[in-house]
């Protein structure tokens, strides 16, 4: 097995920054191509939206186990194999043009992306320590958030210039180039291999999931990001079929959505000293108010600019809620950092995939009021969970037990 050489530290670090955003690229780059894919693959909107759900479900499930597996079998070989399979699956989608093969390849991409992302995060911890690790970890969060912002923007131009297959050719070549970079300049830096112990892992999962603030948070995170995914699944059809704009405009709307999420994350960090539950109630209340205004306005004024403005505001508070609870969940059990990391990402993605696909399947979103209604429904679900959590906090505090730390 090839061992990591410290003389390639700089290019190995750049490689991490280029691979971590792969999950965002894989979900968002082909969003502007949804309408053409529907036409070319002879399916309906739900059939195309399923390609996103397939990825999210497999990605979420794989994240639950990936951390333990990269600790048991190493990072390097798993990342290389995953990059190769991801590249081949992208080319298969672009060449074969069969909706059922696309579903299968998207499941494979979800699995491989989970191992790539988890493997490279772990690799960063392997090669850096102390303040340098903290510095690069903070940069990693910023780099990751850039993918959902830039991917649809890139995808819009690819769609306009070359058609729907171009996004998958892009993903295939991207992964192939990164495979060669990893092959030549990376290596195995991990030395503390541990046996994969199922019983101890199950025991840890039970301990973490029994905490109501943590388990409720996973659902809240999933529903919060589910709103973003509902937008991602529906926006291409709204922008291109309802408002009659090009795929490039879909990319711009997604860009604005991403800026809103990032702005909300910054807002969440700036209010880090405020009471936890109060911040959450504030965020979801603002979402409900804005969504109701979006619904009412859509009956009288419905154009791309009003629609995009409401999306920005809603996703700002999405980002706020997500940042507040995501940070809380990651730090809730410091003694089980690996498990909580995998659960927070993986389980919430599963909730996201189920909730988003259920909403778009039931509502058949075709206009601004329909989109607003989806936000109202998901926000009310979050509000109900927050009331449930607050009641638990009150009961535990009366008995001397602490829930919210």
TrEMBL record:
It comes from Sinomicrobium pectinilyticum. It is found in: Membrane. Keywords: Membrane, Transmembrane, Transmembrane helix, Transport. The keyword Transit peptide does not apply. SUPFAM superfamilies: MFS general substrate transporter. Residues 12-396 form the Major facilitator superfamily (MFS) profile domain. GO terms for cellular component: plasma membrane. The chain crosses the membrane at residues 12-35, 47-66, 78-101, 107-124, 136-158, 170-196, 217-239, 245-268, 280-298, 304-326, 347-366, 372-393. PANTHER family: MAJOR FACILITATOR SUPERFAMILY, POLYAMINE TRANSPORTER 2-RELATED. This is MFS transporter. InterPro entries: MFS, MFS_dom, MFS_trans_sf.
